[in-house]
Amino acid sequence: MGKVRVAIIGVGNCASSFVQGLHYYRNAKENDRIPGLMHVNLGGYHVRDVEVVAAIDVDRNKVGKDVADAILEWPNNTLAFAKVPKTGIKVQRGMTHDGLGKYLSQIIHKAPGSTVDIVKLLKDTRTDVVVNYLPVGSEEATKWYVEQVLEAGCAFVNCIPVFIAREKYWQQRFEKKGLPVIGDDIKSQVGATITHRVLSRLFVERGVRIDRTYQINFGGNTDFLNMLERERLESKKISKTSAVTSIIPYGLPDDDVHVGPSDYIPWLKDRKWCHIRMEGTTFGDVPLNLELKLEVWDSPNSAGVVIDAVRCAKIGLEHGLKGALIAPSSYFKKSPPVQIPDDDARLMTERFIKDPKGTEKLLRENAPTVKRESKMVAGATAPSMNGAPSTTRKARPTARPARAAAARAKPARRRTVRRAKPARAR
């Protein structure tokens, strides 16, 4: 197999963990259970086959420096768990647009000089996959970069809540260019969103009615500082809320669901603390309440997922797949084109790795059914994860009452995001 050549947009904490992880796991054994990785080898690509060939940022602390040094520059404050040797790859000066909000612009100062020719950079470095790590709320900047990615002929992995893969306009743009896209908004390995989703499905499947729930998050990295600017949070709120409510087969009033970031606490650094509360009704109309606290290092929690996502994007490129890749998007992202329960999404992602074209064809043909019933996984077998022996099992029966399926189709009073075309560069 060849290499997976990756370009990174935004050299922040998440990029730091991603780059460190590529070095840290370069000698991982394929038959061992490796903490932090779902796949040592994915579709023939080992972690060491993923290499960063370009990096883009606007911060004067990072532009012009070797990637190995830039990932440790302030305001990055995640754990340094691997000593990355010099890469020979210098961080290039990117386009700002709306990438720096009110609070980030107080601590990040733009590097002097002009923006690098992004299309030329991607072509010259023979980039396969571009990863978007821009700050939350970078709507114009993300769409501008997507235009460069399309022109350069690369796959795209969107790790932030600017809706690209799930929007029909951008799906068609990638299809027209014959390129795959995975998105939107990274779903961490064991983060607030996937934990909340799993608990919600547990309540539903065990016959407990969910009456109300909240998820609040605190952190001390620049992501949480940036999200103090509430105007930048619309897409983030939609992404996190719909990821949870899509699992519940009946609508909840808006006042009974709160999901989102809450505050910035500098001394937490790159740690995130999540508090989840769920209130429900069980047998005999008796109340049942659940509270959970999750503490994670935020950026390492996402890096292993992104390492899998870029390898799936490369597989998509190799097999001529175009447009949004439904299977990996549903498993790796909060706001995919089609929401699939996580255990079913996992099965379909494993199937995608073995049969990319067949899996995506099946999902596209059954997209409305997939969204509500996950019918396509009937008869699928549980895959081998990270060298573990595979346990064959039939997927759970998917037949549900028509009334429940209809209710599941849309969360109550769901907001609509207006699709915007790319902004002119400035």
From TrEMBL:
GO terms for biological process: inositol biosynthetic process; phospholipid biosynthetic process. Residues 398-409 have a biased composition (Low complexity). Residues 366-426 are annotated as: Disordered. Belongs to the myo-inositol 1-phosphate synthase family. Residues 410-426 have a biased composition (Basic residues). Residues 366-375 have a biased composition (Basic and acidic residues). Residues 191-299 form the Myo-inositol-1-phosphate synthase GAPDH-like domain. PANTHER family: INOSITOL-3-PHOSPHATE SYNTHASE (PTHR43125). It comes from Eiseniibacteriota bacterium. GO terms for molecular function: inositol-3-phosphate synthase activity. InterPro entries: MIPS, Myo-inos-1-P_Synthase, Myo-inos-1-P_Synthase_GAPDH, NAD(P)-bd_dom_sf. This is Inositol-3-phosphate synthase. It holds the Pfam family Inos-1-P_synth.
